[in-house]
Predict the structure.
Amino acid sequence: MKKFKGIFPALVTPFDKDGEISPEAVEKLVENCLEKGVSGFYVGGSTGESYLLSAEERRRMLELVMKAVGGRADVIANIGVFSTKQGIELAKHAESLGVSAVSSVPPFYFPFSMEEYVRYYNDLADSVDVPVIIYNIPAMSGITFRTEDIQRFFSNEKIIGMKHTSYDLFQLERVLKKYPDKSIFCGHDELFLSASVIGVQAGIGSSFNFMAEKFVKIRKLITENRWQEAAVIQGEANAVIEAFTKVGVFKGVKAALKLQGIDCGECRRPFAPLEEGQIQYLKEVLEKNHCL
Ligand code: MN9
């Protein structure tokens, strides 16, 4: 079973001035992240504004990322949407492009039963040959997976991991201990060091788009047992994330990238653009914490 390790930016979807996906910016962003030492990319997640894109745009974004990466790193595609049928269509497309795994947020909007979620992930795993990664994100999906539920998903050996975007470190620790062979990703960047203490070896995050180097460094320092120094870097990252949560994380990520010279446009409406004062505030925090 493949085990993923390292830092995986949850890529933003770059837009040009007309609000269309910008192939140039995708290339630039991917290249920049690779230079910083990331292990792979997570495409089509919340950070990618995927639920504001058409299915055609989701496929196009993935195609552009696959081309830009050119086999130099793993690519995981989130294909989650409202129905099993739509999800499987996106999963098959992702598989045809050669992704390393598909991932899926549980189908949302309608409250399904846990039986239905278990069936969903098994149907998905049956539909493709690439491995499947579940996505535990209670705050956004409205669904809380209990550790017993995760056990039911993991009994299918094609379901090889989980993106844990939850502040429940107790559950994360239990899952890590029970499933040492599964790929468990920390999905909250601000928890990365704490999650590493209990055994996490991989992270998927929005802030890795523009400060992947901090998390690559944290991982290196941990292997050298230099936890105090790792905590200083995590502290810098957290000061930035704290500021971002005040203005909207995805808008903040795009603003940071622009300040770093990678113009990815603005988030799609109904997200409203940041005000000048907010951009100035982010700039100061980014400068103070060595991101600019
Ligand atoms: O992909 C991101 N999750 C969401 C991971 O945006 C829902 C995280 O990177 C968070 O944006 C970040 C801030 O809470 O940890």
